[in-house]
């Protein structure tokens, strides 16, 4: 009898933080060890590839969002190294954040709250709640895209590296905290949660 691969929802607890934050940690360490954004970009690309392989080996699939991010890292990181131009890797956060904003706000334009399929099982809410939360996240990602453009175009390279590693993550964490009252306000009653899970 062959051993079945673990399902994505049964993945080891270490997998998600390792694959999400591992490449960022490699980028940060490589930059500060060499003070060279091109070296850090190469490290980011290699670590991103390793994270995809790790997901594939562990849960026999690659989640969609890490795959999209990896493709963007590959394209913009590759252009950075090929053309010896750091502009492209600095544009990568702008493109990722803008893409998320377009997907979420575009979904709302067609009547779809696209955060619900991603977060619905963890936090059941009414349709109104999902629409509002999706709008807030869409606007937040758009603001982060603009902010990254302002930072890399006006600040030093080292400042931008710190902003990319700590600033974007910290602002995202703070933003999520500000959305907890909304999620509590529109959370389904306990019995509705039970029905949605059944």
UniProtKB/TrEMBL annotation:
Its main location: membrane. The keyword Phosphoprotein does not apply. It is found in: Cell inner membrane. Plays a role in cell envelope biogenesis, maintenance of cell envelope integrity and membrane homeostasis. This is Inner membrane-spanning protein YciB. The chain crosses the membrane at residues 37-57, 64-83, 95-115, 135-153, 159-177. It is a multi-pass membrane protein. InterPro entries: YciB. It holds the Pfam family IspA. The lineage of its organism: Bacteria, Pseudomonadati, Pseudomonadota, Alphaproteobacteria, Rhodospirillales. The keyword Transmembrane applies. Keywords: Cell inner membrane, Cell membrane, Membrane, Transmembrane, Transmembrane helix. It comes from Denitrobaculum tricleocarpae. Belongs to the YciB family. GO terms for cellular component: plasma membrane.
